[in-house]
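Need the bound structure for 9MR, inputs here:
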Amino acid sequence: MPSARPVPSALRPVVAAAAALVALALVAAGALVSSLATPAGALSPAVVLTSDFESGLDGWQARGAASVSTTATGARGAGSLLVQDRVDPWDGALIPVTEIFEPGTTYTIGLWLRLPDGAGTADLRVSVQRDLDGQPSYETLTTVEGVSSQWRQVTATYTPGLFDTASLYVESVSSPADVMVDDVLVSGVRYTPDLSLTPVSDAVSVPFGIAVEPQDLLGGRGDLLAHHAEQITPGNQMKPDAIQPTEGTFTFAAADGLVDWAIEHDMRVYGHTLLWHQQTPDWFFQRDGAALTTSAADQALLRERLRTHIEAVADHYRETYGEYGTPGNPIFAFDVVNEVIDESQPDGLRRSEWYRVLGPSYIADAFRYARAAFGPEVLLFINDYNTEYPDKRAPYLRLVTDLLAQGVPVDGVGHQLHVEVGRSIPMVEDTIEAFEALDVTQAVTELDVSAYRDSGESWTQPPADRLLEQGYYYRDMLAMLERHASSFESITIWGLEDSRTWLRSGAAPLLFDGALQAKPAYWGIVDPSRIGATPTPTPSVTATPGVTPTVTPTPSVTPTPSVTPTVTATPSVTPTPADPRACRVAYTTNDWNTGFTAGVRVTNTGTSALSGWTLTFSLDGGQRVTQGWSASWTQSGARVTATNAAWNGSLAPGGSVDIGFNGSHTGSNPRPTSFALGGVPCAVG
Ligand code: 9MR
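Answer from helper R.:
Posting the output first, comments after.
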């Protein structure tokens, strides 16, 4: 089956280079790595575009104010494309790809870039403009920093969403320097999922959902989604910036595309989100361009904007699909407020613009407006991340308890569960149990499990043993959630397949790889026997050295009891005469562009109980701790100190405590290499 449109006859395939690019695309998609993956059938890589500029412009044109011509100097052969007369960063060179690209197919784009001699350096971008229903969208495929007069080879992958017209282009971040382009080669691969696999929704007793973007509905991705999920959450399309970019202008097209698809596939929709501190346009918090104050008039204005926004969303979906709770309308739940907790604040509430202008009252108001607008059939959720950590759990629980006591219509509590392999599952269960005491339902709203334990790890694809470990983690997490199934309205995973995660490349946090094939993570949920038993006992078992020598059972060979005492004597097994003050630290992080969440598990591997402890380590890459939990955190230069909270100071031999923090970094996030507990160096790992 051809994976993309035929190569225009004018374009000559460059077979070796194409094969290399396709191989790259497959590695990026994980197709060559996951040993448990069903073979990625029906892969049909095809070169869809080549331009070597040796006999003309090969269909390339000027974009914006620029002019284009060919030069005699090529990256490898003779000839390249020269872009001149640029004024703005978006002026450049483009090639129309309307007839070349197909929505939902994954393309690998390779090209060479440089600046002319003497032009200094510039940060360049390879981008795509897609126009749909008269609305342009601009997507950066890759940014190439510091391009000089040396040729640089660039590779990017890209999966277009729907478009009426589309163009591939080269631009810059800011400099209008002249640019040279050569040897452009684009190949496409259409991946085909295995639809004979058991749907995840059949294996999970709670309604199972996946968060999606419009690209996830197309081609093989759409087939995969329809096969495994029974509800979707729009990843970005229902956020305030998507729905009301300027005051009074409502744009529902992208969100409606997702809802229409859900209806066609008999699925429910979980709405996300009516209020957030991110992805909310500035105009919400301004009057005539100036920041709103806390005056009664400004407070009334912001409250009115909140009410208007919520009503507009509710009215739109009622008018379009019928009353909520009737068969035509699939929206059954909505995140009303997202991420309003900040455990480092005395009142536990985030200091957002909402809070600055309105104080804490906006939360109850949002729920009341939502109930009035949506009616009783839509479940109203509060949603947050890191809710498993005790320091976050406490203010979350307090807030929901207070809201319920005031009669505020909160129906459900969401736990995002953006975690990494190894984050404590018992801690998650403790949070679930804490909320089971309240009159609310619960949902896992954004589960994903990064394969990276910390920011020191980096790879194109996780090693096979880590993917297996991730499979065990999903298995254990879902098994725990199943024990609480009656407390849950739904369980949603934040993304369909690894190539489209919000996490950094290589995190591979989802159930399917970029080639749409099942990973061990899928089998961990659907049929754990396919990934075998956990190979080694979990580290906490080894923490009690006195217990280890129960290697005794050999006596069956010689039943004479006299043999036994010699067995017990194996003192060499017991680690050196018990150290009263030994410790071990496991440090994991979940990274994004400029920030990270770190989980730190401290285990007392010594023989004496601690009452009160202090952990020290260094962040040597300029990282800053922005917010910590389950300990009192301070930072001086690179040195970070965490001192126990009032409730977790006692640490028995073999006992562990989980603490953590959010941090910022500026591009690199090296992990700390040494930790000390009360000044005593700890084992790491
Ligand atoms: O998945 C979303 C990603 O595409 C956006 O760039 C990002 C912007 O803030 O938001 C992501 O979704 C977030 C969700 O809305 C709330 N919880 C955290 C999610 C991951 O950042």
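Comments: DSSP finds 14 helices and 34 strands in the chain. Residues 14 and 50 are 7 Å apart (CA to CA).
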